[in-house]
Design brief:
- The complex is a heterodimer of chains A (336) and B (571).
- Chain A has 336 residues and is α+β, with helices and mostly antiparallel strands.
- Chain A is built from 15 helices and seven strands.
- Chain A has a five-stranded mixed beta sheet. In chain A, strands 6-7 form a two-stranded antiparallel sheet.
- The radius of gyration of chain A is 24 Å and the shape is globular.
- By secondary structure, chain B is of the alpha/beta class.
- Chain B is built from 14 helices and 24 strands.
- In chain B, a hairpin with a 5-residue loop joins strand 13 and strand 14.
- The radius of gyration of chain B is 23 Å and the shape is globular.
- Classes of the chains: A alpha+beta (336), B alpha/beta (571).
- The interface between A and B is large, with 71 and 67 residues.
Chain lengths: 336, 571
């Protein structure tokens, strides 16, 4: 596929890729080879794969294949689902290495089905939702009105709530939580993860919410640990533009409401505005402050490798690029 | 085994159960929700497509307000409803329900100018965020309200039986956790059943996976009276393929912010139903659609399991996509709604009937057993109506809480139930797996207790169900005895409820000797308001059951005929 893809459209293009083809290249009766990961925490504790062949049926979904297996071959297969129509968000699994909603994704002729990552497996494809739920609850994701509710219908425009509205499409399937490489690092960062942040955005980006409450939640969201890799958007079955409409607006909110949690980002921005480019030594100085003195060896290493250049930092020249950068950044500053 | 104590156990985590729990907690009554799935994610409430406007809400005219009430009573319940209850409910929806939801944060969809987007017409509706998906943010909000209120939840936990005091009153529940296999008893002053409308008893059924008629089965076992079980409601245009999408509806009601609604087309390509054109008063036109489909089936131009189509090829895709999710099955198949309708089929939806309740306090006929929402037999489904039940049951319990005794541990009942559930886990017969028995029951219900019923088929269904009960159930085989996330075990528990409820429904269907709305008897094709504008009450007796008939009061709306062929009745 040689379509030029910019980062923001990766998920969209892959999701739209050949849906019709994916839905029509198989004929009823064609064999679907399914490898399912089995795991029983209670017994041997070993993970293994079991192979099945399922006959294709019109418009078959991954969940149809699992149901067929559970009815005909492995009646003890454990997998979770409730609604079958992309509303409950409980049936997400990994199919051939990518997160999909079992009820929503078309089958492929050869499928390996595994449980979601980054969550403990209970049995077979059933994961423990608690680590995700606990993060969501820690945000206290409900409205706290700074003033009395004025009565139905209250003044509110879609324009004011459009990002929160996107986040409200979330069905908490945790696909993005499984796909996120930063969550995959475990406890190395305090990043809450895409799914909990989408849940947070539902109320944090709601203009009716108390900013002080939003600030409390953002304080421990670890949002600047997001790599903007767009993996979350790529797998989101609800097609929420998670990076652009959730993470980025939440970062802006953090910079506005909890500036000390956005020190690195604000310094980066200020430097680019002043110099038209990033200056690593100034960035280190601004973010680390006097602590930098404790890291002389590291500074020397950076100097030797040409990563920092104190001379240039001190004797900076005002360039046209700096002016342009300042103008652009000013234009992008969210109206607040 | 854990023994928990609380004031009230609410069984079910849908709109009714959550609201009941929230209202009880507000009154400082200790409450525990036991939910077979996940609170806010399982049960029929999740599927709410839009929220109907009643009364004078958002500029409803008196005529639109009256239309909404008329729609509810005629099209939605075929007059089998307490009209005074409906009136109280309507007033509450207008004055409490909408403001409560919005104050808590529910986003009623606005346009960029700040107007709440409505569907125009004789009856109007709004959406929570997006039409077709309203139940998702609605129930997510309820889930979070429940968490915020600190209400104790036992999720992915099955209530397998109601426990009783010596005097027969209900005082707790026996539960199994689906993920850990652990048993627990929850003792309470009273129990609220809020297990929902759907039972998933037919081959094609709406509702969520875990539903299996548990509420009806358990209520019947403790002797509660049931009512109008035969009044099965159907979705007429749910997506035919794949089976997983059997509850994916090509919504027939008006598209939000548009004058259009879906159209239905038979196998010959002829349009046979379009709500906005054919019956603007039938806002949720399920019964009207069904009748038109029956004509197509009789003409050989459709089948109940497919061979006809529904879609939006007459509407600009932008009109469908601006405020609704109605295009989602099309897009996921790689199609545009413009390209044509997709194949649809009939699906067993809600049951209008259920447990008989006193609508003034939501008590069943068994002391200590209260009911809220769809499992009750007093109205057909709308998310606002079941929420009102949550309020009523909380009020009803609060009124009596002072006189209600704490739950008592009935050791012998608990031990008996533990042994019964344990024996299902270790079932090592040489027969089918529980899931196969489930499918067998659903097949019998679909083939013989489907859209068009008659005495011969219904009796044949009873024979089939009896065969399943006597020859298949005792020989079920559970392959894996693990207690961890053992859905086979869950299926085995479900089957025992499903077989009981299926039989009760068939008996009730035999008893109602008329046709009324979605209840169609080919051997009694007339709607008979003289004899059957009445509750069909099923009462447990020492040697089985008997039926009683109780006519409904008709204070506000009355049918304008005594007897008429059901197919010619507009509702």
């Amino acid at each position: 596929m040689n379509i030029p893809v910019d980062a923001r459209s990766i998920g969209k293009i892959e999701n739209a890729d050949g849906l019709l083809a994916r839905n029509s290249r198989l004929m009823p009766g064609d064999p679907i080879r399914v490898r399912v990961q089995r795991y029983d925490a209670g017994e041997t504790g070993a993970r293994y794969f079991e192979d099945f062949v399922v006959p294709y049926d019109t418009a078959m979904r991954v969940l149809d294949a699992l149901n067929y297996i559970a009815e005909n071959f492995a009646t003890d297969l454990a997998y979770r689902w409730l609604c079958g129509t992309k509303m409950c968000g409980t049936c997400a699994v990994r199919m051939n290495g990518r997160e999909v909603l079992a009820c929503w994704e078309a089958v492929e002729p050869d499928m390996t089905i595994e449980p979601l990552r980054n969550l403990p497996v209970v049995r077979d494809l059933v994961v423990d939702r608690r680590p995700y739920e606990e993060r969501v609850v820690s945000f206290e994701p409900w409205l706290e009105r700074p003033s009395a509710y004025p009565g139905f219908p209250e003044p509110l425009s879609h324009r004011d709530i459009k990002d929160a509205s996107k986040a409200l499409d979330c069905i908490s399937c945790m696909s993005c939580f499984s796909a996120c490489p930063v969550i995959g690092l475990g406890n190395l960062t305090d990043f809450a993860g895409p799914a909990p942040l989408v849940q947070l955005a539902q109320t944090a980006l709601d203009p009716r919410n108390n900013p002080a409450k939003v600030a409390r939640a953002l304080e421990h969201a670890g949002i600047f640990n997001c790599l903007s890799c767009y993996k979350c958007e790529e797998v989101c079955p609800a097609k929420i533009p998670i990076v652009t409409r959730v993470i980025e607006p939440l970062k802006a909110k953090t910079a506005e409401l909890v500036p000390h949690a956005a020190r690195h980002s604000l310094a980066f921005r200020a430097i680019v505005a002043a110099r038209g480019r990033i200056d690593p030594s100034e960035l280190v100085l601004r973010v680390q402050g006097p602590k930098v003195l404790l890291q002389v060896r590291r500074a020397l290493r950076l100097l030797l490798r040409g990563k920092i250049n104190p001379i240039r930092t001190i004797f900076r020249k005002r360039t046209a690029a700096a002016k342009a950068a300042a103008r652009l950044l000013e234009k992008m500053r969210p109206a607040s | 085994m854990r023994i928990l104590t609380t004031d009230v156990v609410v069984v079910g985590g849908g709109a009714a159960g959550c609201y009941a729990a929230l209202e009880l907690a507000k009154k400082n009554i200790d409450v525990t929700i036991v939910c077979k799935g996940l609170v806010g994610k399982s049960g029929a409430s999740l599927f709410a497509g839009n929220l109907v406007l009643g009364g004078g809400l958002l500029g409803n005219t008196p005529e639109q307000a009256r239309n909404t009430a008329e729609f509810l009573i005629k099209y939605h319940n075929q007059y089998l409803i307490d009209q005074n209850w409906a009136k109280r409910c309507g007033q509450w929806i207008e004055s409490v329900y909408y403001p409560e939801l919005e104050e808590a944060g529910l986003y009623f969809r606005r346009d960029n100018d700040g107007n709440v987007v409505t569907s125009p017409g004789k009856i109007r509706s709004v959406a929570a965020n997006v039409q077709g998906n309203s139940g998702v943010p609605f129930m997510d909000l309820r889930r979070k309200q429940v968490i915020k209120a600190g209400i104790h939840r036992l999720e992915e936990t099955i209530v397998t039986s109601l426990l009783r005091r010596d005097d027969g009153s209900v005082c707790g529940v026996f539960t199994v956790n689906c993920l850990t296999g652990e048993y627990a008893v929850v003792l309470a002053r009273v129990v609220v059943l809020a297990t929902g409308y759907s039972d998933r008893l037919h081959k094609r059924s709406t509702g969520t996976r875990e539903m299996s008629g548990d509420g009806l089965a358990m209520a019947w076992r403790v002797g509660a009276n049931l009512v109008n079980l035969e009044m099965q409601w159907w979705h007429t245009n749910d997506v035919a393929h794949p089976p997983t999408w059997q509850r994916m509806q090509i919504y027939p009601n008006p598209v939000l912010g548009s004058e259009h609604s879906a159209r239905m087309v038979n196998s010959a390509g002829e349009e046979f139903f379009n709500q906005q054109i054919d019956d603007p008063l039938a806002f949720g036109p399920y019964t009207v659609q069904l009748k038109r489909l029956v004509e197509q089936v009789h003409a050989g131009k459709a089948r109940y399991d497919g061979g006809y189509f529904a879609g939006f090829d007459h509407v600009e895709p932008r009109e469908v996509d601006t405020y609704t999710t109605y295009g989602k099955p099309f897009y996921q198949l790689g199609l545009s709604p413009r390209q044509g309708p997709i194949e649809t089929a009939v699906t067993a939806h809600y049951r209008q009937g259920g447990i008989l309740v006193d609508t003034s306090n939501m008590r069943s006929s068994v002391p200590g057993l209260y009911v809220a929402g769809g499992v009750g037999g007093h109205s057909n489904g709308l998310i606002a109506l079941v929420t009102f039940d949550g309020k009523c049951v909380a009020d009803g319990i609060a009124m009596e809480i002072g006189a209600l005794q704490p739950g008592e541990l009935a050791d012998d009942q608990v031990e008996r139930e533990r042994r019964r559930i344990e024996s299902l886990l270790t079932a090592d017969g040489d027969g089918p797996a529980p899931v196969q028995v489930k499918e067998k029951i659903r097949r019998v219900m679909w083939d013989k207790v489907g859209v068009e019923k008659n005495h011969i088929d219904l009796n044949s269904a009873l024979e089939d169900l009896d065969r399943i009960r006597t020859s298949m159930l005792p020989n079920m085989r559970v392959k894996n005895c693990t207690r961890i996330a053992n859905y086979e075990w869950v299926d085995a528990i479900d089957v025992c409820n499903m077989i009981d409820v299926a039989e009760l429904i068939v008996h009730s269907s035999i008893e109602r000797r008329e046709s009324r709305g979605p209840f169609m008897r080919t051997d009694f094709p007339e709607t008979d308001n003289e004899n059957w504008l009445a509750a069909n009450i099923m009462i447990k007796t020492d040697n089985g059951f008997r039926f009683e008939r109780a006519p409904y009061d008709l204070p506000f709306f009355q049918p304008d005929f005594t007897r008429r062929n059901n197919m010619t009745v507009p509702w």
